[in-house]
Structure formats: C-alpha cells, structure tokens
Fold this sequence. Notes:
The protein is mainly α and 462 residues long. It has helices at residues 11-46, 53-85, 87-106, 111-114, 117-147, 153-161, 163-181, 184-191, 193-210, 217-231, 240-247, 249-279, 285-313, 315-338, 342-368, 376-390, 395-406, 410-429.
Amino acid sequence: MAAPATAPPPPSNLRRIVAASLVGTTVEWYDFFLYGSAAALVFNKLFFPGSDPLVGTLLSFLTYAVGFAARPIGALVFGHYGDRLGRKKLLVLSLLMMGGATFAIGLLPTHATIGSAAPVLLTVLRLVQGFALGGEWGGAVLLVSEHGDARRRGFWASWPQTGAPAGQLLATAVLSALTALLSESAFESWGWRIPFLLSGVLVILGLWIRLSVDESPVFKAALAQAEQRKAAAAPAERMPLVAVLRHHWRDVLIAMGARMAENISYYVITAFILVYATTSAELSKQTALNAVLVASAVHFAVIPLWGALSDRVGRRPVYLVGAIGVALWMFPFFALIDSRSFGSLLLAVTVGLVFHGAMYAPQAAFFAEMFATRMRYSGASIGAQFSSVAAGAPAPLIATALLADFGSSIPISLYVITASLLTVLAIVCAKETRNRDLTEIEPDSGRAPADATTLPADARSV
C-alpha cells in the first residue's frame, strides 16, 4: 500500500492536541467513574434506604446502568453533528454537559430530605452524564487519529484512551483519601459530595485546553470537498447515520462485538470489585479502593505501550491478546481476591487491567480506521456506544445479581469468559486496519485504494 499522503503535524502541535483530548476524556471519565464508585459505596444507603444491603446495591447499580442507556442516543446525536459541524465543537459541548451534571449530583438532596424525588433526580442526572459521554469518546479519539502521524496512529490515539484509567485513578484517589480522613458517618453525611463538586474545577481546566486546539485537518478537507459538491449541484450527502448503516454495517457489528469483553471485564474489575471485595472477601472499603487506585496507575502506563505495539504488529493481534488474557484470568482473579490479602487483591486487579489495556489501547485507532471521514464520528461512536448497553451497562448489575443468587464467583467468571468469546469471534472476522490512510478509505468497502483519484467524486475522502 502506498504511504499516506498526509504529512504528520509538528510534534509540539500533536502533543497539544493529545493533551486536549486526554484532559477532556480524563475529566469526563472521572465524572462517570465517580458515580460508579459512589454507587457501590454510599448511594445504596443515601438514595435507596430501607432495602436489604445487597438489594440496595442492586438498585444503586441500576441507576448506574441507565447512564449507559443514554450513551447510544448521545452517540447518534453527537456523531451526526460531529460529522456535519466538526469534532471540536461537539467535544466542548460534551464536556460542559458532563461536568454540569456531575456538579449537580454533588448538590442533590438525599432520600432523607426529599423522599422518592431524590433517586428520580439522580437518575435524570445520570442520563445526562451518559448522553454526554456517548458523544465524547468518538470525538476525542478522532481528533487525535485524524491529526496524528499515520505510522504511529495506534500510539498517539491510545493516549485519549488513558483518560479512562486517569479518570478512574483520580476518582478513586479522591474517594480513598476521603474515606481515610473522614469517619464513615461524616463521609456518608457530606464527604461524598466533595468529589462531585470538584468536577466544576476540572471542567474549567479541560475547557481551557480543549478550546486551544484546531479542528481536524482531515475533517476540514472532507468538509471543503462536500461544499464543492454542493456548489456544483451534486446529489446531497446522506445523513451520517444512513451512510454508516449502508456502507459500514459490518464494521459497526465488529466494533460492537469487540467491545463486549473490553467493556464487561472493565466494569467487573473496577466497579463490581468494590462490592465483591467488601462483602464476600470481607475486606475494607479502603483496601479495595487502594487496590483499584494502584492498578489504575499501571493501567494508565501500559495503554500507550499496547498502542505502540499495535503499530508494529497490527490492531487485531494485540486485541486478541487482551480478549484471551481476560478470559483466562477470571478464575485466578476471584481466587486471589478470596485469599483476603491486599497483595493478592492488587495482583488480581492489576493483571486484569493489563489485559484490558491490550483491548482498549488499539481500539481508538482500530475503530477510526474502519470508517470514512464524513461518517467516522457516527460510525465509531455507534459501534462503541451501542454495545455498551448490552456490555458495560448491566455488567455490575449482572455480576451482583449472580453473586446474590449463587453466592459464588464462578457464574461471574463464566459471564466474562462468554463475553471474551464473542470478542474473539468479532476480531477474527475483522480486517486488519493498521496501514489505512484515513483520507483514502472507500465508503463502500472500507479499503484504502492505492490511488484515490480513481474513485468517483462522491466516494473520495468523504
């Protein structure tokens, strides 16, 4: 295949773009994971009192899951306008929506103050969070992928992915510090609000950095071509969603399958673990939070390494290592936790997240390379977020229900292994995308031609 026609941007400019995407995704994932941790630790008592502790946790995780239900809607809306108006504008909007909803949760009265209206308002704000995050991910990874050096796209595009462990690290660190400094009664009374209110400061920082970067040059070129076609009275472009379903339906299904093991394993390892470690293993909240905290730091460090490896050997081999690794690790994962020592718990979570990173790191470049420019935001977002409804959304809920019904971790391990098999099947059916030029992908086949000038005018760079 011919070398990509687009020249890489100056390193300083690319680093600024990566920083803008990373800071924004870190803030948004901080907000999202903060809710998940709070759902496991305090929301069952504050918003669903009077229930059996495990039932209260189930209800708390149910509000956690509804945020995922809003993510596909966010993917559709943000994807549509992101493909029409640009990546940057929609990224600014998603950051403001996410931060505003999280800040409002910090001010929310509990069930003891306003009764049943409290969980209703909590659910509404969770829906806003999910809607915003559904549009955030696609735009953040595309902004880097479409700016970056094609030969190192996997490495550079993996940096916005580190926003997930960075947000997890930040959220867990704040919660861990508060649970260590405050008594349990003080934390449940007012201390839990502090991390949510801190989101306002983080949003201001993220917004300042995100407004400083320019729009993707690949998108600007495609938009200019679309304007030329419009001026020449050429047939109007189809809506991005319609174009995706017509030209890239197979890629959407592959992306959804690829997300199953990645999404489910992550929320079992980082969210459900707070329930399992504190109930079945009888470890303290502080011990569980500290283990996730340290493991998230390792997760952050290995993601760029996995991304760089995907530039050398391909997206598919690295992704398969992660999917198979997670499946093989599930039984040892719970066995280590059951030993009830901090060292074993830390090893269980860290190894699990290292394998998860092998899926998560190449995912950004992999999904971006599947879709044509004028439908890339929609395609990548739809493929990533629609699967989250069946994967990450119910994962802590299903895991908690399996634990309640069977009193054993074996069904939970089998649940994650089944998801891994679906992901392996999806990756085996996928085509390798490592050498694709994002400016030359044909909408009808997903392949990069050697000479884009041989394409029809309406299929070139769109």
